[in-house]
Amino acid sequence: MKNPLPFLAMHFYVQCMVAPAFTMYTLISGKTSAYHLVQHLCEVLNVQFVKTKDSAKLESGSVFLCNHRSWADFFVDQTICGGGAYLSRMMVWIGTPVTSLWAWLSHSTWFFNRKPGIDRSAFGKWINSQFDERPHPGLIAYPEGTRNQKDEPLKLKSGVLQYAYEFNRPVQCVITTNKDTVVNEKAAKLNRNVICVTHISKPLYPKDFADSKEFVVSARELFVKTWETAYNTKPEHGDLYSPPYGLKEPQYDEVPIKRRLWILRMIIIFAFIYYMYQKRKVSLVSV
Fold first, then answer.
1. Where is the Phospholipid/glycerol acyltransferase domain (predicted)?
2. pTM of the predicted structure, to 2 decimals
3. Which of 51, 132, 214, 279 could join 209 via S-S bond, C-beta 3.0 to 4.6 A?
């Protein structure tokens, strides 16, 4: 194993410096931007973005089907997709509490409780309600269902595709190379100056298909073709660019769910009052 210190230092930087700084800014200003946080991380590592010459433009409000390679996915893909949102289980709060707090506050991750026997129709309606809270560029999904560092894609799970079909959401495949070179958490490694090649497919529109089965089959085929195009394109044969491609330039927006902002502000205020009360109590006892 190579020296793990750069990897650990980056993890510390994100959890203890970047995420708290963005959270504090949001608490004070009431504004937020998931895109600018992840873009900053890409700038720190000097990730170089190249798109294939025949990449389509991203379409707002779509479901973006991305390849799941490593932890780098969570800032590289979100940069490419203009600050699109993620779906995530509540359990991730245990491993990454600070970034999870930021993601919850900024509404850049939609947290849910994963349990057996979930009502897919109700879950789909809940996802749609999250879209309504803020006009996100789209939803970033990893339909392979697990991290896959093989040379070919896994068969896609049908859940998110069924959702897209039922609620008439376009899907686009967004495949990016070398994310596991940027960060490889299994080996505790990270690298700077990595060139990531992205191929973006044209949208698939559910209304163009007779049924969900036909839609799912087409999405799976498109995912494979998009994968092959991305991984078979050399960086010098693509175009260097600044994401996102086709979406409006991300801005700092008002916090979409303001009650979350005020809940957190009140918790901090009461915690500070309690701390001062305890401190005063101790000082009186010592006198």
1. 62-179
2. 0.91
3. 214
DSSP the chain: ----HHHHHHHHHIIIIIHHHHHHHHHHHSEE-HHHHHHHHHHHTTPEEEE-TTPPPP-TTEEEEE---STTHHHHHHHHTTS-EEEEETTHHHH-HHHHHHHHHHT-EEEE---TT--HHHHHHHHHHHHHHS--SEEEE-TT-S---SSSPPPPPSHHHHHHHHTT--EEEEEESSHHHHEETTTTEE-SS-EEEEEEPPPB-GGGSSSHHHHHHHHHHHHHHHHHHHHT--GGGSEE--S-SSSPPP--EE-SSHHHHHHHHHHHHHHHHHHHHHHHHHHHHH-
Alpha carbon distance 141, 66 (integer Å):
6
Tokens (6 digits) for 67: 């390849």
The string of pLDDT tens digits covering residues 20-67 is 999 999 999 999 998 999 999 999 999 999 999 999 999 999 999 999
81-106: per-residue pLDDT in tens? 999 999 998 888 988 899 999 999 99
